[in-house]
Amino acid sequence: MAKDWAEEARSLVEDVLGKHAAEVDRTGRIPGENFDELARRGFYGFLLEEGITPHAVIDTASTLIAGCLSTGFVWAQHTGTLRRLAVSGNTALRDRYLAPMAAGEFRCGVTYAGTYSPPTLFAERDGDDFVLSGRAPFVTGWGHIHGLGASVRVRGDQESLASLLIPLEEVDGLHPRRLSLIAADASATVELTVDGTRVPADYLIDIKPITGPDPNRLLLADWTNGVLALGILARNLTELRALGDDALVAAHETRYELLRDRFVPALGNADLTYSLRADISHANLAAAAAVMVATGSRSLDPHSTAARLYRQAAFGLVCTTTHPIKQQLLAELEPGQSAHG
């Protein structure tokens, strides 16, 4: 019988992640137990399970993120790199790293800095090596990860986009600067300056020529990253239930279910994905504001649950938000406009 990953995620939240969430937010540190339990229960490789469905991915990831945003945020980066490696044509690289990544023994971050328009992370070929330079504005999990899945813009007669798996302990020229975030600060997110970092071609996941502008190049990542805001929204609903206003809870639960039901139909469709992402973020603001108001003056304590969730809702407005999502959300935030969800 196939494992119920969403139920397993709820169990992990109840046993471990939820118990630590307030302390993680207050101290800016994630207990190692959080990541060890994610590994022990199979979450680092659950995307590779036979028969895993988009709904299972959505429900599992959003549940973990609802349990502890910082932990879930670090873990989610790994799944992006795992997904890329799993379909790589580099058999030797896949054979070497896929199993330890799925077991949580080799944990990864991710950056799409070479995919941005304009790109900020570049590579030049030097024999069989890629020599990297530039910067990755946001790399999450520094100090918790062993590798980095990096999209880099390869300069040459014809530009191309390469995905590399960078083993952090085997390369030089990486200079992290820790960023301070209004939420998920414990995720150890850094701005990474890259100066002459040499990566052998053995670590190439894939490479594709760039034939022209492609505004939807990050479409799958945009869709997947929607679970971050959905998880924050789910946590707001949990708090509203605890506060006991049944009518208010019912209205927000209905909105949540409508948004969740739009996820799978949006897969692969740019307009539906961008609209969905904007609507979830907009719904988050309303739910977090409701938590603040229902909590009352206690919510003004910066370490209160209500304040934490409001900061997380604001974080969800911009984190992993690409330009098309930003434009959609700004349109919805105009006076007189309302979310579709």
Automatic annotation (TrEMBL):
One of its GO terms (molecular function) is flavin adenine dinucleotide binding. SUPFAM superfamilies: Acyl-CoA dehydrogenase NM domain-like. InterPro entries: Acyl-CoA_Oxase/DH_mid-dom_sf, AcylCoA_DH/ox_N, AcylCoA_DH/ox_N_sf, AcylCoA_DH/oxidase_NM_dom_sf. Residues 4-105 form the Acyl-CoA dehydrogenase/oxidase N-terminal domain. This is Alkylation response protein AidB-like acyl-CoA dehydrogenase. The lineage of its organism: Bacteria, Bacillati, Actinomycetota, Actinomycetes, Mycobacteriales.
